[in-house]
Write a structure and sequence with these properties.
By secondary structure, this protein is of the alpha+beta class. It contains 2 helices and 8 strands, in the order H-H-E-E-E-E-E-E-E-E.
């Protein structure tokens, strides 16, 4: 299969999540921080996590934009309290391809809650493949999902 991608692992995702959690914990412990500055720092940490997810897709060489080839199911909550959503990738090419897909998890107001990347591997020519993306932590309320980016390679 043409192209090369760097493999990312659950460890990398968990490391990013731990870093965000640590940043949130540290900022909330400071006596000098106002609620608005803590919120600003939290938003910055989540922006960093989103950038990390985007970097995983940037590492894919020889990929093309495939956002239009991705469909999402309805978000559900798994037994661990994390939000999951089924991702369907349609391969319209004449050879087997894989897809890297970044999903953003947002609240009712459109605020970013989380982001994660799923790989839908080895989708046959003219067929669809499925994968499931899972939030990196528990999310509360009415969670909505969107395809932030998708790369076919």
């Amino acid at each position: 299969m043409p192209g090369h991608r760097t493999r990312w692992t659950t460890t990398a995702i968990l490391t990013t999540t731990a870093a965000v959690a640590a940043a949130l914990t540290l900022t909330s412990c400071s006596d000098d921080d106002t609620p608005s500055s803590v919120a600003s720092q939290a938003a910055s940490a989540f922006a960093s996590a989103t950038a990390k997810a985007g970097q995983q897709l940037d590492d894919i060489q020889g990929g093309v934009n495939a956002k239009g080839a991705i469909r999402l199911g309805d978000p559900t909550t798994d037994s661990d309290g994390r939000t999951t959503v089924e991702v369907t990738a349609e391969n319209t090419t004449d050879s087997t391809k894989s897809f890297g897909v970044q999903i953003n998890f947002r609240d009712e107001g459109g605020n970013l809650l989380d982001a994660n990347v799923v790989t839908v591997s080895d989708v046959a020519a003219g067929k669809t493949g499925k994968g499931t993306v899972r939030s990196t932590r528990e999310l509360g309320g009415d969670v909505r999902t969107e395809v932030a980016r998708a790369v076919r390679y």
